[in-house]
Amino acid sequence: MSLQNVAHPDEVYTERTTQSRAHMERARKVMPGGMTANIKHFAPYPITINRASGSKFYDVDGNEYIDYLMGYGALILGHAHPHVREAIVRQVEEDGTWLFGTPHDREVTMATRIQKHFPSMEQIRYANSGTEANLLAVRLAMAHTNKYKIAKFEGHYHGAIDSLLLSIHPSKSDAGEQEDPQAVPDSGGMSPEVANETIILPFNDIKSCARILEQHKDELAAVIIEPMEGGIIAPKQRFLQQLRKVTNKLGILLIFDEVKTAFRSAMDGVQGVYDVTPDLTTIGKVVGGGFPFGVVGGKATIMEQSSPLNGTDIFAGEDSEASQKALFHSGTYNGHPLILAAGIATLDVLEQEYDALVARTDRFREELTHLFRKHDIPMKTVGSGAMFSVLLTERQEINHYRDLQKCDHDSRKKLDKALFEAGVYTKPGNRYSLSVVHDDEALTKTLEAYDRVIPEVIRY
Ligand SMILES: Cc1ncc(COP(=O)(O)O)c(C=O)c1O
């Protein structure tokens, strides 16, 4: 049974977003494609937002939306939660500035808070994004093992790092066999060599992973994985435990990229749910309270390599041989006091309200599933905790990128655009990230919007 979607008139979109279009015309004169991040783009032009409150935001034409993008999952307390706002103001007032450039107390407070949920992060370093955190994790792994290749999974995203920006979204013709995926660069401007330096693995297929890793064990520093693929596709029972066993046996480090999932899929991350201890973990998004932040943590023996006590700093003007002994990691804004204040305040609230948020998200997913069933449209939701995606598919199981590719993404995007008109926003095709302020009223309004829009947009 295949879906045939009925085109929803794009004119409705353009009629109600004339100021967004005007904004984009101005933006395209000064920024490539009018964008500061390619991910923000969708055709014919994205909606421009200029105000937000709680679970809602408003575009430059004055339209109101319930926001399910929530800053790509970062804003788990919604927009401008009062506890976070107070913490930010208090930080500036009490500290008298928002940047010291020296050690300070919140660096330790935050580390301790993170370790409470992620005991595998025995020692911690801060960075300014998930991308930066992964960059450091890869360097730590290479230094620790004296090996210089990385294995990553097809369909998994870790930021715009040359060695990891491969096979996130490969075309069917380039991707190779399912059991033997090929490395396909995801961007221009990358050396053709990178495709030889990174090994691609198939998610949820431990037999193929074990075979590929055995083949490359002498050159592989680490396997990096989104342990819940894309934040939505669950690992099969025991897949992560088996991957841990194989990597341990072969002397390859295991890095969990929990940038999306930490404090969103579960308070203790996917590693907590599946009881697997990686060597290194990277987190970001939620833990930065909506500000630019990334964290690397893991085994003390690995993390200690970046200690300045091992050598000196490249900027210190001292013995340059000593500086080469320490693994370099630095950053003007690392451990930014304002960001740590926002992040700690976010954890304060989340520790109290997370379970209720998950219960509400689960109920919402169930009600959405019933609604699609009522309209006789095959759909399943995938995800966990306070994050999920709506997949238009008859498939029972979604195990990896290639299953995901077989879903009806065109109809999903049309549905999302039609939902704009009904006051419901996520970037077309993207995940739903709920927050503690998505209350019953917002969720009911969303279900009513879906009920109206589904038959307008999708039919057999
Ligand atoms: C799993 C994962 N890793 C890394 C990143 C990169 O994080 P950032 O955008 O903060 O650089 C992302 C961002 O979406 C992500 O989802």
UniProtKB/TrEMBL annotation:
Keyword Ubl conjugation belongs to the record: no
Region described as Disordered: spans on this chain: 1-20, 171-190
Cofactor(s) listed in the protein's UniProt record: pyridoxal 5'-phosphate
Any one GO molecular-function label of the UniProt entry: transaminase activity
Domain of life assignment: Bacteria
The entry's keywords: Aminotransferase, Pyridoxal phosphate, Transferase
CDD domains: OAT_like
Family the entry assigns: Belongs to the class-III pyridoxal-phosphate-dependent aminotransferase family.
Protein name (Swiss-Prot/TrEMBL): Aminotransferase class III-fold pyridoxal phosphate-dependent enzyme
Biological source species: Salicibibacter kimchii
